[in-house]
Amino acid sequence: MDSLTQAALGACVGVAVIGQKIGPRRAALTGAILGTLPDLDVFLAPDDPIDAFVQHRGWSHSLLVHAALTPLIGEGLRHFFALLKDNRILTYTVTYLCLSTHALLDAITVYGTQLFWPVWPEPLSVGSIFIIDPLYTLPLLVMTFWASLTTTWSTRYQKALSASLIMSVVYLGWSMAAQQWVTKIAVGLLADHDVKPDKLLAIPTPFNTFHWRIIGVDGERSFNLYISLFSGPQAVFLYAYNRNLSVVFCESGDQRIARIAKFSKGFYRVMLDDGKVTVADLRMGLTPNYAFRFALGHLEGKKLMPTQTRQLEGQGDVSADLNWILKNIRGIPTARSAEVSARL
Question: Given this model, what pLDDT does residue 233 score?
């Protein structure tokens, strides 16, 4: 999730565990800092854009690493806060929970998180919530702001905090249930179009869990199927794309496409534009403005002549896409203008 959400979640966890001991304000600040720590791996990212992409949310997000770091960080907190000096278990608990809830929340997004590095280094992901979701974040932000304004623990705040944390968990549960629901619907709808993809993944469109994009991969083709929870089957829109898997490297040792293919779990696409070759993870960003798209070189015949890897900036019409999402959420079936040429 985004850094603001992670800080707010950490703050709320911090207040829930040690707010009565050191006061809501200090507990919120402590939790926010701890809840942000795992993302400091961005400062250790490799220079190569693809390596930086696939290695993010690595060892610093591992629950095993968090367990190893907990005594070190916990002892530091015990020395910093006199009121925690005689509460080692409580201090260790807040430390581990703030770190681990960050990683667990990240694992519910589609990017993936190496929760069990180094024992199991493969990223695990659910993909049921977008990286920024106001309905999830706002209750946590309200409680964080409230905590920042008070130094005194109260029953009123405790009840509101408990309600906010319960709401956040329920919302994540809802997102997973909605994901399973639209996946089941998608299988039937794709079969009606005589499409039986090898892989299928349902992910929410930006900022919500009510309008979904189902990505299908079937050999040389990939599909986008958009489903709104508030519209009937007549409101479903299906788009198809060529994945250009026939493109091969002129240098046998170049594994850039293979690395993206592995990290994306097969949900990737090679794109050709006036001889220029790019590769993208289909799971993140809206077609064709993927969040992680990399320029690899240019085409000569069917062979790729490599150049230095560059990550490309998305250039989509954000206003048009937000309007499209809102219309579909409101039950107004609307095709996406940026993909109209690929509609089936």
Answer: 66
What is the per-residue pLDDT for 234?
Answer: 64
Pairing label, strands 237-242, 248-249 = unpaired
3-state secondary structure of 222: strand
Chain-centre distance for alpha carbon 53: 13
Give the model's pLDDT for residue 6: 97
Can you read off the two tokens belonging to residue 224? 């986008």
Q: Of all residues in the chain, what percent are helix, strand and coil, respectively (each to 5)?
A: 50, 20, 30
Rounded alpha-carbon distances, angstroms, from residue 308 to 113, 223, 250, 256, 294? 27, 29, 14, 11, 10
- The rounded distance, in Å, linking the Cα atoms of 259 and 295 is 14
Predicted TM-score of the model (pTM): 0.93
Distance in angstroms between the alpha carbons of the first and the last residue of the chain: 33
Contact 242, 220 (CB under 8 A): yes
Question: Residue 267 to residues 62, 167, 263, 270, 285: CA-CA distances in angstroms?
Answer: 24, 32, 9, 11, 13
101: exposed, middle or buried (Cβ count in 10 Å: 0-12, 13-18, 19+): buried
Listed residue (291, 274, 299, 244) closest to 111, CA to CA:
291
State whether the Cα torsion 257-260-262-265 is positive or negative. Answer: negative
Q: Give me the helices (H) in 23-62, please.
A: 24-36, 49-55
pLDDT of residue 316: 81
Give residue-wise pLDDT tens across range 16-40.
999 999 999 999 999 999 999 999 9
Regions of the chain short of the pLDDT cut 50: none
CB atoms closer than 10 angstroms to residue 25: 18
Between CA 289 and CA 280 the distance in angstroms is 9
Distance CA 123, CA 256 (A): 18
